[in-house]
Design a protein that fits this description.
This protein is of the alpha/beta class. The chain has one domain: Alpha/Beta hydrolase fold, catalytic domain (Rossmann fold, 3-Layer(aba) Sandwich). The protein is globular. The chain starts with 9 loop residues before the first helix and ends with a helix.
Amino acid sequence: MTQARPDIDPELRALLADMALPSELDREVLAQLRGLPATPVDTLLEGRAVERREVTFPSGDGAQIPLSVLSPARADRTTKAPCVYWMHGGGMVMGDRFSQIDIPLEWLDEFGAVVVSVDYRLAPEATGTTLVDDCHQGLLWIFEHAEELGVDPLRVVVAGASAGGGLAAGVTLMARDRGTPPIAAQMLICPMLDHRNNTTSSRQYSGGPAVWTREMNEFGWRSVLGGLADEDVPAYVSPALADDLSSLPTTYIDAGSAEVFRDEDVDWATRIWEAGGQAELHVWAGGFHGFDALYPQVRVSAAARRTRSDWLARVLSSPE
């Protein structure tokens, strides 16, 4: 018997019906998805007053990791800009540093933020803490180069969607534990937080049609964990395992009501509150996974994106 589950927003449902969705995710399908055309970043940058810089930095094991730095072209270089450090989605197994980059580019336009996006290594080729370590090293690079980037080190926000949201949460935990310069805030968009994949929402969205199903999620987690037993999985990789969520920066977290990650995301916000921290949580009725990235013109998507920007405006203008 099919488990009851929240319905998809009518506007989104009509669009989802026209999508060619894979029925499963395995190595063969992954190779096909990775072979699709890359995100057309030049099209997104066209007409924007943006300076683009491509750099690499050494990760902990010496591998060179690409970063894209997108800065607003501005005459006044004396005023330091906020920075959004972006981690892309893709289930830990696909995507690149330009995936969903239109989301932080809105904050470049609105707040004059410098957007830095990291091309962390992907599973299954990279496993364990490699992905989150890559992202953490990129954060350190930003702080080390804040002066030349024109970035205010007190206004660095880590942000990501889906797998990138999970990595952003892991990076924030790692930064807290290792004494990295303080992060101003974390923006977690439908984050992938829990490898156990056993919540009600995970079971509700087993099987299609869906952008990201429980079965796809299992493949993503198997790929990144590389055979680790549950008791050996680090909390930096699967942040829901973290025992202590105290002393985290103010957090924004959102999800759709019609997606796998809904319940683990709600739990994350709840546990931040339990630890005395500050979190703002939104669950968008009828939103499926990644709805606002795929269809930003739909009313619920526009509301979600506008609400994030409003929150970020408050965070970036808050007094010290």
